[in-house]
Amino acid sequence: MFRTMSVAFTREEDIEATAADLADRPISPHPNLVTPQGLALIEAELAAARAAYTAAQVQGSIESDRTAMARATRDLRYWSARRASAQLVEPGEDEGVVRFGGSVTIERDDGRTQTWRIVGEDEADPAAGSVSHVSPLSRAVMGRRVGDEVQVAGQSAEIVAVG
């Protein structure tokens, strides 16, 4: 006869061990292009990860909170790798061409206009108006000029401003 154990009787150490076994954050296979602001963001995140790692060590024995140590270690590995691979792209001359670090405004067929800044993956925030240089939108507009027609999300759009 088989007996099942209630979840309530699961050993606390087993839960901690599972929680502490965090997978690494995935590292993008694309070049890690960054704007000056993106580099500053990575450095701030790296400093925060170092501080979290130190705090996890200081809080007592690692066994008492393996989750905090695992999270801090994972984040430290991620941000260290992102800082080591960062390729700073300084703003260039505005030649009227959509480029990394610049902005682009498109007008869609339905009359909507939208503006985005093309940035590195770690600083991209579409809700705040910035998209990654590897996004489909960026790929569609990079190297184009005002007046060019592009396909964005399966719809035609015209580039109406570049900055």
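^ that was protein a. below is b, sequence first then the tokens
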Amino acid sequence: MFKRCSFLLVLLIPVLLFSCTRNIAPAADSKPKTETSFNAADMTADILQYVNAYRKKKGLGALSTLEVADQQATLHSKNMAQKKTAFSHNGFEQRIATISKTAGTMRAAAENVAYGQLSAKEVVDGWINSPGHRKNIEGDYTLTGIGVYRDNKGVVFFTQLFMRK
């Protein structure tokens, strides 16, 4: 499915499959989110801002968003929230293949997922405090796609894709 130039991606997949986050607990002093506090567009923008601020502190370049990657990340978050797929990285290779058809071949890719009643800051902090997720955030990537989707119980599912052409 992937060309030889994406060999790195094939090697990373087993590691990436185990770098998901089940449920990053919010800080004890954090307030519960209310029905009106959820805005997917604001949340994705905030996640990008927090991830890029962290990357800047580490001397890394900012990630640019890719619309087709945002769409794939959102679809994955929605499918997990609606129980159409398990909370997992299932379909990761297909998401990257779909993105590659539109945006060109990706030489490397990774994915972080999480869920919970979390703010953008809480989910990014949780990823940074997890070695596997932090490795993805600090990786040699230039592009990202971010998708969030809230289920009918108020639980938010998060997907962030990382890619390099």
